[in-house]
Write a structure and sequence with these properties.
The structure holds 3 protein chains of 3 kinds.
Chain A lengths: L4 E12 L5 E12 L3 E5 L6 H8 L7 E11 L5 E3 L5 H7 L4 E4 L13 H12 L5 H14 L16 H13 L5 E5 L7 H18 L2 E6 L2 H7 L2 E6 L2 E7 H6 L4 H9 L28
Parallel strand pairs in A: 3-8, 3-9, 6-7, 7-8
Antiparallel strand pairs in A: 1-2, 1-4, 4-5, 9-10
Helix pairs in contact in A: 3-4, 4-5, 5-6
Chain B lengths: L2 E13 L3 E14 L3 E5 L6 H8 L7 E6 L2 E2 L4 H10 E4 L13 H11 L8 H11 L4 H4 L9 H14 L4 E5 L7 H18 L2 E6 L2 H7 L2 E6 L2 E7 H6 L4 H9 L3 H6 L9
Parallel strand pairs in B: 3-8, 3-9, 6-7, 7-8
Antiparallel strand pairs in B: 1-2, 1-4, 4-5, 9-10
Helix pairs in contact in B: 3-4, 3-6, 4-6, 6-7
Chain C lengths: L1 H27 L4 H8 L6 H11 L7 H13 L14 H36 L8 H10 L2 H15 L19 H38 L2 H8 L4 H26 L6 H6 L5 H10 L3 H29 L1 H7 L1
The chains are: A alpha/beta, B alpha/beta, C mainly alpha.
Chain lengths: 290, 268, 327
């Protein structure tokens, strides 16, 4: 291990090559530390997803990386510049070093092939030496690890609940023990109880395997609870980056403050809410009548 | 004073191969003018079944739904009057507005159909309504939904719902598809309009935090049953039912998180 | 299992309805072509043939409609579709049997080739959207909008009349007897090449366009991005993730076009004087040969039905969601 940094993104810019061009990510510099959960917060269209896709070079035309670099500091000590790899090198890098978990509780899994096959093709691509039996065994082990159970190898995505599908995605992302996991709104489509379970699972797995996480979501309260550091993005730029506690207790940027104020506190004051309690038809002590 | 009453409402669905599914199990509550009740629960809890019953997409299997003491009419003029009295605001402002029509058309329609104002005052009323939801009438009236932002579209949907001067508003996740920074604005706007017209609001949501601050009462639904119903603050701050407690503890709460001396990154 | 039972019941009902309509149709026709025909050819028709004609056309006034219906089914099950007026009272089954293989062979092979080639090209163009490959689309569309008879005539003018590469008409050389020899097979291929080629070119555009558009939709799906993020080889992403999903809607169109093989290739068979079922149907219509028309109608209905069953089976195999939805 050479440094504590895992990924250094410098002056990274992405444009959508339409008329007029849209600068989705502008001159972003950010460092992901080894083993940390870095939150990337912002509203839709702020460029947070584009930045993550850009790091993995997954952008589709008309999006183009216009400048900047992303250097991955491998645990072997090598520095890998993501922009200079050819297609084959990039494919070998993907998932091996950095995997992804997508939002789509529904759409991130191919609906017409089994979960087992989708897990196993990670191994057949990246571990060609593995036998068919080993691939299957390892895939089953991964499903056991995330609590889905190896019996589900033969299931199709639609046979699983949203939470289960997301666990399958996490199992898949873990397959090659990557050093970085990019999670794009991984719990947004899920109910809050399921969301909590998934978040705890991610946290446990990170403690066990030590990977770093870039966690992308618009749900700032959630990020505040799970992240070590949080970067707030707006209009393609990072407007503020700090530890979760500092960002919450002492935000420096106006937009960060506004974003924080947009989320009412669950147990605290009403904040910006104008409404005051009106008439209630309930007797004062009727709260627990059910 | 208008009162909407659910009395022991049960809704069963037949599920192929699985017999019957209880979507609502003896649900009772009363919503009156000026009051906001939040209906909270996860997907499949029965929240949307209640909305469907109120919009008459579904019939109850047993029990009564009464508006000022009379059952929801099923046809003719009484039904029209019911629909004028109870209005919906949907989750997806894009899907609920017709992309082919201008904003003017959307708001004029209920005004003319329900004969809210004399024909020669319709234009004026459209302007008033748009202004009321803080849209610039000159800039929006001749546009089509896709030319507006999500927040603007939802304001149009609210203006349309208010056009026929309803007494009760059913707001089904009205802000969950909007950008976070404008959610509060839209809820505050709803609250203002509510106090002006003394509207009763049924706020259907999965978000406990907004439910608490936006409503007088919270009703927690779980598998079709009301497991807890009480004053908003009490339900959230001192939940009596395990399920409510579980929901509350699962919801992110940075304030509590940072108040406790936990290390950043720990989740539980 | 339930799914298959339901589908089976559905198809059994459809088949029954089609056959029953076939039973009632001649009974609703105005006039009585059969009696007229029988009178014209008195004495030359065997008593059995008369009986079967009477049953099929409901002239058996001594029997109730229900008895006629039962008889009709019995005839069907014994493979008796009556006698063809225009083909010297040959059994309709024989007449149809002699035409069907030509149609099914030629048009069937052309349809399969067109589907496979068109879908593959469409998948590739969709995959490489925005590249030069897109240029194929307008060309293919052009050919599918050209009226078929026109394209057929031009093909004959160029490849047959001018260049002399292929014969202009018929399924094999005049004067040869069909046999299972290499020479005869060579003739069949030579004669079938132009009709098949024109059919393929005429229908290719639809397959290409349909598949390309589906590909573009599917390529935007998250699971395709996931497959790419997994570092899978592009060929694997293309085949296992994108094309497999995109081709599902193509399958139902394919089944439909298989169903229309027997009835839908009249123009081709006319242009190339090909002795198939389409031409037979035209002959039967002009000759007012009702038994033959009735038999052809039945065969066409049943092929459409069989094609739909095949599509259902293919869908159930390829798309696991269909199986569950019905369960």
């Amino acid at each position: 291990m050479t440094t504590d940094d895992l990924l250094t993104v410098s002056q990274f810019s992405v444009s959508y090559d339409v008329t007029p061009p849209v600068e989705a990510v502008r001159d972003v510099s950010i460092t992901v530390r080894r083993g940390e959960i870095l939150g990337l917060a912002g509203e839709s269209g702020c460029g947070k997803t584009t930045l993550a896709y850009g790091i993995q070079r997954l952008l589709k035309p008309p999006a183009v990386i216009t400048s900047g670099s992303a250097v991955f500091h491998d645990e072997s000590g090598d520095d890998i510049d993501i922009n200079t790899m050819d297609d084959a090198q990039m494919r070998a890098f993907r998932w091996e070093k950095a995997s992804m978990v997508f939002q789509g509780a529904m759409n991130a899994l191919n609906p017409i092939i089994t979960i087992g096959a989708q897990l196993q093709d990670v191994f057949s691509t990246h571990r060609p030496a593995m036998t068919r039996r080993d691939r299957k065994l390892e895939s089953g082990r991964l499903l056991d690890l995330v609590g889905v159970g190896s019996a589900r190898l033969r299931s199709y995505p639609h046979e699983l609940s949203g939470g289960m599908r997301q666990r399958v995605m996490i199992a898949m992302a873990l397959a090659l023990k990557p050093q970085l996991m990019i999670m794009d709104e991984p719990t947004t489509a899920l109910d809050v109880l399921v969301q909590r379970e998934i978040i705890e699972q991610i946290s446990d797995l990170r403690a066990e395997f030590g990977f770093s996480v870039i966690f992308i979501t618009h749900d700032l309260p959630l990020l505040l609870e799970i992240s070590d550091r949080i970067a707030v993005m707006r209009e393609g730029r990072i407007v503020e980056i700090d530890t979760a506690r500092n960002l919450y207790q002492n935000p420096q940027n106006d937009y960060t403050r506004r974003l924080l104020a947009s989320f009412p506190s669950l147990t605290g004051e009403r904040g910006g809410f104008v409404r005051r309690p009106g008439p209630s038809t309930l007797a004062t002590d009727a709260g627990g009548m059910f | 004073m208008t009162t909407l009453e659910f009395k022991n409402v049960t809704k069963k669905y037949r599920v192929r191969g699985a017999g019957e599914m209880l979507a609502l199990d003896k649900v009772s509550f009363t919503l009156t003018s000026g009051q906001t009740i939040a209906l909270v629960g996860q997907s499949g809890s029965g929240k949307s079944t209640i909305a469907k019953i109120l919009t008459q997409l579904e019939r109850v299997s047993s029990g009564d739904v009464l508006l000022d003491g009379t059952p929801i009419p099923t046809w003719g003029r009484p039904l029209r009057r019911y629909r004028q009295t109870v209005r919906m605001v949907f989750q997806d402002p894009f899907a609920s507005l017709n992309p082919a029509h201008t904003i003017r058309h959307h708001i004029e329609r209920p005004l003319r159909l329900d004969k809210v104002v004399p024909p020669d005052q319709v234009e004026e009323e459209v302007f008033r309504l748009l202004t009321r939801v803080r849209l610039s009438p000159e800039q929006t009236i001749d546009r089509r939904p896709h030319e507006l932002s999500g927040g603007q579209r939802q304001r149009v949907a609210i203006a349309r719902a208010l056009a026929s001067r309803p007494k009760l508003l059913i707001a089904d996740e009205p802000v969950s598809m909007l950008d976070v920074s404008i959610r509060l604005e839209v809820l505050n706007l709803l609250a203002e309009l509510q106090s002006e017209a003394n509207l009763g609001v049924l706020y259907i949501t999965h978000d406990l935090a907004t439910a608490r601050h936006f409503s007088d009462e919270i009703m927690v639904l779980h598998h079709g049953k009301v497991v807890e119903h009480g004053k908003a603050d009490e339900v959230i701050l001192t939940p009596k039912h395990d399920y409510t407690l579980a929901l509350r503890n699962a919801s992110p709460d940075p304030e509590k998180h940072f108040a406790a001396p936990t290390t950043p990154g720990a989740t539980s | 299992m339930r799914f298959f039972l339901r589908r089976t019941a559905f198809y059994a009902f459809t088949a029954w309805a089609a056959i029953t309509i076939n039973f009632f149709l001649p009974r609703m026709m105005k006039g009585d072509p059969v009696s007229a025909y029988l009178q014209k050819n008195q004495g030359r028709i065997s008593p059995e043939a008369i009986d079967s004609l009477r049953t099929l056309f409901g002239l058996d006034s001594t029997k109730s409609l229900f008895e006629q219906y039962i008889d009709y089914w019995q005839l069907l099950f014994s493979g008796d579709l009556g006698r063809s007026f225009s083909k010297g009272l040959a059994p309709v089954t024989d007449v149809i049997a002699s035409a069907i293989p030509w149609t099914v062979g030629l048009v069937g092979i052309a349809t399969v080739i067109s589907f496979v080639v068109g879908t593959s090209i469409g998948a590739y163009i969709g995959w490489r959207r925005g590249s030069k490959a897109d240029g194929i689309v307008p060309v293919a569309t052009f050919f599918s909008t050209v009226p078929y008879f026109w394209m057929g005539l031009i093909a004959i003018a160029i490849f047959s009349t001018t260049l002399g590469w292929f014969p202009a008409s018929h399924a094999y050389d005049k004067g040869t007897q069909p046999s299972f020899t290499l020479e005869f097979a060579g003739q069949v291929i030579q004669h079938g090449f132009l009709p098949a080629l024109t059919l393929v070119i005429g229908s290719l555009g639809g397959w290409i366009l349909g598949m390309r558009n589906m590909m573009i939709t599917v390529l935007d799906e998250d699971y395709v991005t996931v497959a790419q993020a997994k570092g899978l080889k592009p060929s694997r992403v293309l085949v296992n993730y994108a094309a497999r999903n995109a081709s599902l809607p193509q399958l139902s169109s394919f089944a439909m076009s298989l169903g229309f093989i027997v009835g839908g290739t009249l123009v081709m068979e006319l242009v190339f004087s090909y002795p198939g079922a389409g031409k037979l149907l035209l002959d039967a219509t002009t000759a007012k040969d009702y038994p033959l028309m009735q038999g052809l109608f039945l065969v066409i209905t049943l092929t459409v039905l069989v094609a739909n069953i095949l599509a259902d089976v293919a869908y159930a195999i390829l798309d696991p969601r269909t199986r569950q939805m019905e369960a």
